[in-house]
Amino acid sequence: MIRERGSAGRTLAFIKKNYFLYILLAPALILTLIFKYVPMYGAVIAFKDFSPIKGILGSEWVGLKHFEKFIASPNFDVIFMNTLKLSFFGLLFSFPVPILLALMLNQVRKATVKKNVQLFLYAPNFISMVVIVGMLFIFLSPTGPINQLVIWMTGNPLMFMSQPEYFRWIYILSDIWQSAGWASIIYVAALANVDPELHNAASLDGANLLQRIRNIDLPTIRPIMAIVFILAAGGIMSIGFEKAYLMQTSMNLPTSEIIATYVYKVGLQSGDYAYSAAVGLFNSIINVILLVTVNFIVRKLNEGEGLY
User: Fold this and answer.
1) What is the DSSP letter of 61?
2) Helices (runs of H) and strands (runs of E) counted in the chain
3) Which of 18, 99, 125, 215 has its CA 20 to 30 Å from the CA of residue 182?
4) Between helices 218-234 and 273-301, what is the axis angle to 10°?
């Protein structure tokens, strides 16, 4: 009891001493509570036969009815696998690219050249998603520049935006182009802390470039790689709704219909709020399970270092 009081007293004294820091933290904390935690109460409609007239409290409780309806629906397998495949392949191909970019940028010694290359790599991140998709439709249209090259080589254009088999790769490759440069910032910042003397000493010992990267640079950014990978794997089912919805056409739906677009169509377009909330909650539960599982595996493989 005395120890608990002492600990509480030290905590209170620390807060009083650093009260200004807590004042600075308060707005962000309040906004997080209002816009992130308070809306969680609305998730209860996933377990009710929600009626806007009766409200959340007045609506009838139906338990897992909506979850069972979604899992039993004929579209479940297609939508779930589309979401999983798009997320998994996106993570598989996009995760190493920022690391490779950061390692290459770290080898550029001229500051002016490095800044210009970074500006070129970071610029796509600031382009609106609507503009990005518009560019994709223009470049990949039957009369676009890419198809002009295809026609010159094969004689026939490819219907990139209409054929389901092309949707996944167009989504992933365009996402890499847009976000990889910006995602490399955290690795570039970590590599900036590497002591140049380590590289000089390794060079004197006869280590080549790849050996220096493997034994000096990669161990430096390994903890960051682990955290970024855990967070990415934890959100593997939460791929962007906006881009997938904008890229959808009536002919590529077999691969472009994912949980996020399905929730939008069922919830906002059809007005079935309870069912769409259940589908969204199902998606979030899968993400939490993946986050905990991946974090456990990474901690085992990474000498106990993980997200928590």
Assistant:
1) E
2) 18, 2
3) 215
4) 150
Q: How far apart are the first and last CA of the chain?
A: 28
Report the alpha-carbon distance of residue 26 to residue 222 in Å, rounded.
Answer: 33
Q: What is the DSSP letter of 49?
A: E
Question: Which amino acid does the sequence have at 252?
Answer: N
Residue type, 274: A
**Helix extents (H) in 18-75:** 19-32, 55-58, 65-72
Whether residue 242 contacts residue 133, with contact meaning beta carbons closer than 8 Å, is answered with no
Tokens in use for 269? Answer: 């377009």
108-142 pLDDT tens trace: 888 888 888 888 999 999 999 999 999 999 999 98
pLDDT of 27: 92
Listed in order, strand segments (DSSP E) in 126-174 are none
Contact 237, 84 (CB under 8 A): yes
Amino acid in position 106: N
Question: What dihedral do alpha carbons 187, 189, 195, 198 form, nearest 10°?
Answer: 20
Query: What is the predicted pLDDT for the residue at 1?
Result: 44
Residues 131, 294: Cα–Cα separation, whole Å? 34
Question: Is residue 164 helix, strand or coil?
Answer: helix
What is each CA distance from 43 to 62, 281, 285, in whole angstroms? 14, 7, 12
CA distances (Å), 189 to each of 103, 106, 217, 219, in order?
Answer: 11, 10, 12, 14
**What does the buried/exposed string (b/e) look like for 148-172 if buried means 16 or more CB atoms within 10 Å of the residue's CB?**
eebeeeeeebeebbeeeebbbebbb
Residue that has been written with the tokens 């807060």 in this structure: 15
Per-residue pLDDT tens for 229-269? 888 887 777 777 888 899 998 888 899 999 888 888 888 77
User: Is the pTM of the predicted complex or chain greater than 0.90?
Assistant: no
What is the Cβ-side half-sphere exposure of residue 124, based on CA atoms within 13 angstroms?
A: 17
